[in-house]
Design brief:
Layout lengths: L1 E4 L4 H12 L7 E4 L20 E3 L5 E2 L2 H9 L14 H27 L8 H20 L13 H17 L9 H10 L3 H4 L7
Parallel strand pairs: 1-2
Antiparallel strand pairs: 1-3, 3-4
Bound molecules: glutathione.
Length: 205
């Protein structure tokens, strides 16, 4: 299997964390891919032109990150499972993943907009995305008790929230999300010690 990969993508980081947590590293080749390069052949594997994309032995590919994560979790490995069986724990974990991925979607949109020339930039769009992230971090703060014991077995929810907060630190470290979020901060301090998180740090911004 080959993972089309970018070390700065929070969705890729989530998938890399799943790979670490499930002990699958030696089954997966990493192919660094710049999704933004005009010459990239990434659309041959993912017509949406996004990483991560997981290319399987038969040449077919899986995307997006929730699908890849669940596929990897279904493989024999160590640890896990990260996706609980159908029932309340599963909906909690999937909802956390949706919130976390949504933080990444909004933060990336804001960043892309902010990188456009000033005369083309929509400050309304940027403010809207910033507010979406702020509301979602507030919700995670209120719900921190349901993020689970960081020392115990993680779920895809735990992993996705770690990757999303890690992305905010990476790209928006100057607007520390920890402010006014003591419960989420305390949870993150412990959970971020997981090896799957420390070993998948993005390069220095
Ligand atoms: N929903 C997708 C989002 C993937 C995504 O947006 N990846 C970004 C990198 S962080 C990308 O490849 N963007 C290229 C583009 O939008 O053209 C997932 O969970 O995998």
């Amino acid at each position: 299997m080959k993972l089309r990969y970018s070390p700065t993508s929070p969705y890729v980081r989530k998938v890399m964390m799943v790979i670490h947590e499930r002990g699958l590293s030696d089954q997966i080749e990493l192919e660094t891919t710049d999704a933004w390069s005009p010459n990239t052949d990434l659309p041959q594997n993912n017509p949406l032109g996004k990483v991560p994309a997981l290319v399987l032995a038969d040449g077919s590919a899986l995307f997006d990150s929730p699908v890849i994560a669940e596929y990897l979790d279904s493989l024999p490995g160590s640890g896990g499972p990260l996706f609980p069986p159908v029932g309340p724990a599963r909906w909690t974990a999937l909802r956390q993943q949706a919130l976390a991925d949504g933080i990444c979607d909004a933060a990336i949109l804001r960043r892309l907009e902010g990188n456009r020339p000033e005369q083309l930039r929509s400050t309304d769009l940027m403010a809207r995305q910033r507010a979406a992230v702020a509301r979602t971090v507030d919700l995670l703060e209120a719900d921190a008790a349901h993020l689970g014991d960081p020392a115990a077995a993680p779920t895809i929810g735990t992993i996705a929230v770690l990757a999303a907060l890690g992305y905010l630190d990476f790209r928006f470290g100057h607007e520390d999300w920890r402010e006014n979020h003591p419960n989420l901060t305390a949870w993150f301090e412990k959970a971020s010690a997981r090896e799957s998180f420390t070993r998948t740090k993005p390069p220095v911004a």
